[in-house]
Design goal:
With 272 residues, the protein is an alpha/beta fold. The chain contains 11 helices and 10 strands. It has a 6-stranded mixed β-sheet with strand order 6-7-8-3-9-10, with helices on both faces.
């Protein structure tokens, strides 16, 4: 498959000796889906924010379809082009949506910002977007507080795909949802990828979620990629002891939490 995103030598520090992201290398195929896995503090959200242009790397390269995304875009046109190329969906949709703005106005505003000058056409597009994420047209009149958590996340996804980005970055996008709602959103995301061809980078600490929606996976430990490859292969037979620990930490019949805690202390007691 054609390569869409390439990340090479990516580094980022935040006022400390330890790097939050240290020499990360990733690729995402056109229309593909990459899972970036790690526990809290592993650096995965920092990578996501650098891809979306919310943080600037200390060094390294980020290219999308051969164009560099490292430098901050200049001027309004450059910022809009960056936003059209990469969109991000955050963990908590209630915090990422304006509580005073209805769903319809939220989506309409995105379209206006990106050059949709005809109001009737914007209205048609808003209804299309709501349908695309499984919401009734009547929800355009609702405020975020009038929606369930799953519905709010559907709105956030609709807002992100409104401009037809090349890459959708999903930062723990289902972790705040009930398990049954998670499954619905994961099916929605898989369907959107098939329909639109938009590549997805899925940030998660949940191996089951990553196994469900990604083609390839990269596992971060203390800011470094310790293993990556086809999702099925990595999660079925992980080579790195940390990845084996993550897999074995999933509760199941015969699961021994004391053994997991002991292995974790032995593995993570010192930097690799």
């Amino acid at each position: 498959m054609t390569e869409l995103l390439r990340v090479a030598g990516l580094r980022k520090s935040f006022h400390s000796a330890a790097r939050a992201v240290d020499d990360v290398e990733l690729t995402v195929a056109e229309g593909g889906s990459l899972g970036l896995v790690g526990e809290s503090g592993s650096g995965k959200s920092t990578v996501a924010r650098m891809l979306a242009g919310l943080e600037r790397p200390d060094s390294g390269e980020i290219t999308l379809a051969g164009e560099s995304l490292v430098d901050r875009p200049r001027g309004r046109r450059g910022r809009l082009a960056r936003a059209k190329a990469v969109q991000m969906v955050f963990q908590d949709p209630y915090l990422s949506l304006d509580p005073a703005v209805t769903v319809g106005r939220c989506l309409d505003g995105v379209l206006r910002l990106h050059g949709w000058s005809d109001r009737p056409q914007r209205h048609v597009r808003v209804v299309e977007l709501l349908d695309q994420v499984g919401l009734e047209a009547s929800k355009q009149h609702a405020l975020p507080r009038e929606l369930s958590g799953g519905q709010r996340q559907r709105v956030a996804i609709a807002r992100a795909v409104a401009v037809q980005p090349r890459l959708l970055v999903l930062d723990e996008a289902v972790s705040a949802l009930d398990v049954s709602v998670q499954a619905q959103i994961l099916r929605l995301l898989a369907g959107l990828r098939r329909e639109t061809g938009t590549a997805q980078l899925f940030i998660s600490h949940d191996l089951a979620v990553v196994n469900e929606v990604t083609d390839t996976v990269a596992v971060l430990l203390r800011g470094r990629v310790v293993e990556q490859g086809a999702t099925r292969d990595v999660l079925r037979a992980p080579r790195h002891p940390y990845v084996r620990l993550l897999k074995d930490s999933i509760p199941r019949v015969g699961w021994d939490p004391a053994d997991i805690a002991s292995r974790r202390a032995s593995l993570l007691g010192a930097r690799p």
